[in-house]
Design a protein that fits this description.
mainly alpha
Length: 99
Amino acid sequence: MATPPSRRSILSLYSTMLRTSRSFSSYNFRTYFIRRTQDTFRSLQNESDAEKIRSIYSDAVADLAVLRRSAAVNQMYGGWRLAVEDIKKPEAISERGDN
């Protein structure tokens, strides 16, 4: 039986997923993936079964790969900024270049 992932590896994965989620240029995608990441890791935090922790962790690792590819595509083809977004432009988010 394999050991569950360490606390450090779980926190590292969490911060990487949040960083990747924040790199989406689209407001709706960005907020959705940040919320989804937080919900996933909150459920992981409340879990005590080692097998379930390994399962959630491995699913999150697979989701990170998909999230990275999706963020790259979204940055290339991102849309216009919405009225609900902050006036200040975060450093990681870029606007479309064809304006």
